[in-house]
Amino acid sequence: MRDGVGAHGELMDGVYRHQRWIYDATRKYYLLGRDRLLDDMRPAEEAHILEIACGTGRNLDRLDQRYPGRTLYGLDISEQMLTTARSKLGKRARLALGNACNFDPVALFGHAAFDHVFLSYCLSMIPDWRAAISEGLMHLAPGGTLHIVDFGDQAGLPAPFKSLLYAWLEQFHVSPRTELSAVLRGLSVQYEVEVEHRDLYRGYAQFARLRRPLRSDGG
Ligand SMILES: C[S@@+](CC[C@H](N)C(=O)[O-])C[C@H]1O[C@@H](n2cnc3c(N)ncnc32)[C@H](O)[C@@H]1O
Fold it and tell me: Which domains are assigned to the chain?
């Protein structure tokens, strides 16, 4: 068992060992809202941006094309996915193996706090997904923003579509986090962050933005 990533890392390696070769080509049809998240980010030129569970590096690659010159970091629990991300991104991003629920960014990247942290279609695959959001918030710089996109509750879509989608997602160990909005409301009090949450595409996906205010002393 590899340090820090354990059984879940092995499970993810199993899911993605072969899938990683076709991941970018296939997921563009159903991981909807990822580009919307990147458009919404609008990072400053000097921004440090961390993707938690970066997978093949698809989003970091897009970010680098859209907003060149930002400092990019990616973390993932699957060495298989990181192998693809490394070959795609080269020196354009610093990548590390780690668990979204508990990681030390100084040890992994030599950097403590990020202007943007984002979680794209990973909370639905992380058993302790609440811990992953808390961990992300802990590494957000004052004035920074945490962004989330993931599967939604499918409430506005026909019931048979929802049943089929949920059954299919289960094959990949994916469970839509239908309580996300309520959990974020709780975290907004605990971490003193401003929270916006909205459904996308009639509930197919959900999007959230959590902003950590600048400290009152201006720091
Ligand atoms: C569906 S992919 C999403 C990849 C990428 N964020 C995207 O939007 O294309 C889910 C990713 O989450 C990673 N993952 C799952 N559980 C994790 C955990 N506990 N810590 C870090 N990464 C995790 C998987 O290895 C996989 O790369």
Answer: 6-211 (3.40.50.150)
